[in-house]
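Researcher: Quick one. two chains, 227 residues in total.
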Amino acid sequence: GESVGLHLPTLSVQEGDNSIINCAYSNSASDYFIWYKQESGKGPQFIIDIRSNMDKRQGQRVTVLLNKTVKHLSLQIAATQPGDSAVYFCAERSAGNNRKLIWGLGTSLAVNP
Amino acid sequence: EPEVTQTPSHQVTQMGQEVILRCVPISNHLYFYWYRQILGQKVEFLVSFYNNEISEKSEIFDDQFSVERPDGSNFTLKIRSTKLEDSAMYFCASSFGTESYEQYFGPGTRLTVT
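Model:
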């Protein structure tokens, strides 16, 4: 479920394991999705994006899966490293001539050595 | 690698004062944005800017807010009369062109209103 304020959903994994971070989006008209990583005290950093005409996209150690039927997005990180510890946000853009990104609450990923 | 820069990194101001937050977007980008993030909460869209005018703004971006691109490199956010609830991290972002929605973010300015 969604949390507010300081109570971010938290995922704790062992170094070397695979991580899966999930995101539910609300607008079936959204046509573009993006994952950002935010380390403490820094701005969001682009990880990977996907358009609604795709259901999977792979990057370096990361894979994004899109299930439009249930409006679900996931980020898979292979062989998680301590440097992956951060808050991960999904964001969506509604179809149309705008560029506003609507952000999810975020998931805190903690990698245990 | 080109990056978005923001100044100052931390701004402390008294309630009712005006503040100007500054950003230098990536040089060949055409679209510019301001977002804010209240501590521990989600990132919220404020405004987007293209071709020297606002292209979209949120309900947060009321008459107390304004943006400007005074020259070819800077992009500023002004808050005319700050309120306590304006305390947040303010992020500037930019993106390249019409087919690219990927936005690059600066490190943010922490605004503290006392």
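The two ends of chain B are 37 Å apart (CA to CA).
Researcher: Thanks, that's what I needed.
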